[in-house]
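task queued by scheduler; priority normal; single chain, no ligands, no partner chains; default sampling; output format set to structure tokens
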Amino acid sequence: MNIALIGATGFVGAALLEELLSRGHQVRALQRDPAKLTARPGLDVRAVDVLSATDLAAEIKGVDAIVSAFNAGWSNPNLYDDFLRGSDAIADAARQAGVRLIAVGGAGSLFIAPGQQLVDSPAFPAEWKSGALAAREMLNRLRADPSTLDWTLVSPAIHLEPGPRTGNFRIGGEAPVFDAQGESRISVADLAAAIVNELEAPQHRRARFTAGY
């Protein structure tokens, strides 16, 4: 497939780039600064401001899907607003271009008890809260979208870590996937594998899923 990728130099985006190329997909990386990526077979790097829905829509014409690992920067004092501004522009561009969107959100909107999302728990780290609240609002906006936008949101496990690609993970829906030790975790390489699996064989259209060991 021809896949447009946003955030290809970030933690999740870099793993997605490797997974997509390793499976033989053509990747159109959309970057504010294309010099951050080295040319490789199967990789087309284009300069684009992802905050401009019109410019972005023009760049994703003809692709099979757009995968967004957009991040407004964890140390950004305006993280909440900037994340939503970028996420809205990306969704709008996908809508204009008629292209499927897979967006990576956080684990904060996963339910850890009936009616309680992780981000609302007292133990949720303060330094991650602004980004988690923004990712939850992104999910809420996608769910409320009255258009026919073909979207999927991916919530990682609670602990998203560096590590090898094992291919041995489980898929969940609205609650975290826990392992035998009661931990919710996954390597970034396996998260990327789960996302590309969804691209190749869609199971969660206009829905959210998670993955973990």
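post-processing summary
- DSSP finds five helices and twelve strands in the chain.
- The first strand starts at residue 2 and ends at 6.
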